[in-house]
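tool=predict chain=A
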Amino acid sequence: MPNLSKADRSMDALDQEIRRLRVKAKQLEEKIDDNFNYFQQHSGSMFVRSLLPRRIEDDEQVTGLRLLDVALQNEKLQGILLKLADIIAEKLGDGLNWLTTRVFKK
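tool=predict ok
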């Protein structure tokens, strides 16, 4: 095997680094895609959870209506609201996708 010059060794090292960085970029793209998919799937429930109180103390009021405050504290009701928010968010996303494909035809 012929001896490689310093320039040839530098080029080989750069080629290896480029290949390594391309693999890393591909991994990062896949991770971003996974995170974005997770966000799309759970954005409705995250939105509703941000609106619902975590825990209401006996003397604390959120809405001003005691009955509504107690109802919002119920875990089953919160679960139903989260499911409903997921369904609504999915339907809204489907509608927006349909609308954008109609408006911005390729």
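The mean pLDDT is 77. Residues 86 and 92 are 10 Å apart (CA to CA).
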